[in-house]
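can u pls check wat happens w/ magnesium ion
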Amino acid sequence: MSYEVEKILITEQAIAGRVAAMGRQISADFEGQEILCIGLLRGAFLFMADLVRHLSLPVEVEFIRCSSYGKATKSSGEVEIEFARKPATIAGRHILLVDDILDAGHTLHAVKEQLLARGAASVRTAAFLDKPSRRQVPFQADYRGFEIEDRFVVGYGMDFEERFRNLPYVALLRGV
Ligand code: 5GP
Ligand code: MG
């Protein structure tokens, strides 16, 4: 079956304005610090690329891949993370963790805990989208782009069956 975009929820222009504002806010909050930005693959790749271009700080860029174990353990929030770098280099760093959507909250919550356990000096989180009505664990992002209702969205890095990540806007799909 082929799917098509039903509606554009957040335009390319709105995204650009909001991400620039987030970058200014983060730059002000982290002033005088060097930050390690860690993006969650693959959904955060575009948000990360745009956000770091609005950071006026010394920035290091890293990506990690996360996977949840089977559904049975997902409710307990067990998230396995794969570092592209040695865990030791996390120690003492001020980290900005960047993700596409904050949904149930397990992913960002679990990754943040693991980074702190590996000795990060601080971990702040930036979620491009936030669906607060879906939360299963009490977790708030330090920075968020847009709050949206409980609808499945694609575009700007986010997929449905690995398609639509390249759309420059956030959209709803017909029939999904
Ligand atoms: P959670 O907060 O539920 O642990 O994890 C959030 C992750 O679920 C996001 O990073 C994203 O990969 C996925 N997700 C949640 N809602 C949506 C959605 O509306 N569209 C897409 N494409 N992915 C979603
Ligand atoms: Mg994700």
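The pocket of guanosine-5'-monophosphate (ligand 1) is lined by residues 43, 99-107, 152-154, 158-160 (CB under 6 Å).
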